Amino acid sequence: QVQLVESGGGLVQAGGSLRLSCAASGRTFSSYAMGWFRQVPGKEREFVATIKWSGDSAYYADSVEGRFTISRDNAKNTVYLQMNSLKPDDTAVYYCARHIRSSGSSWAVGAVADFGSWGQGTQVTVSS
How confident is the model at residue 102, as a pLDDT? Predict the structure, then answer.
């Protein structure tokens, strides 16, 4: 079972930037798509971004398109989320997760149910 550890969250003013990291254990990191999701209290966990195992394709939620960038370094077993032009609505706990399959195209959909092995989350707070 892979273990995922997120870091990089914090408090930032609106318009600022943060870079989240997610370090994965194990030897199969490069075989799976990875995703970032976020959740606020009382709401369902929502898709933010996902990246293919090879790192050459990614998809984003409309709400973050053009502001956030997902990337990965398979040599370091790490996936990143660069967040720019942050807004108060971006405030949430951010989670990384590994797709449940090592092939196919469902990773691009970003459905929460298709991702397993969740990290513990990192809090991002954007003040206005």
Answer: 86
Q: Could you please report the per-residue DSSP string of the chain? A: ---EEEE--EEEETT--EEEEEEE-SS-GGGS-EEEEEE-TTS--EEEEEE-TTSS-EEE-TTTTTTEEEEEETTTTEEEEEE-S--GGG-EEEEEEEES-SSSSGGGT--GGGEES----EEEEEE-
Strands 78-83 and 68-73: antiparallel
- The closest alpha carbon to 59, from 75, 37, 28, belongs to 37
Q: Give the pLDDT confidence of 35-85 residue by residue, as tens digits.
A: 999 999 999 999 999 999 999 999 999 999 999 999 999 999 999 999 999
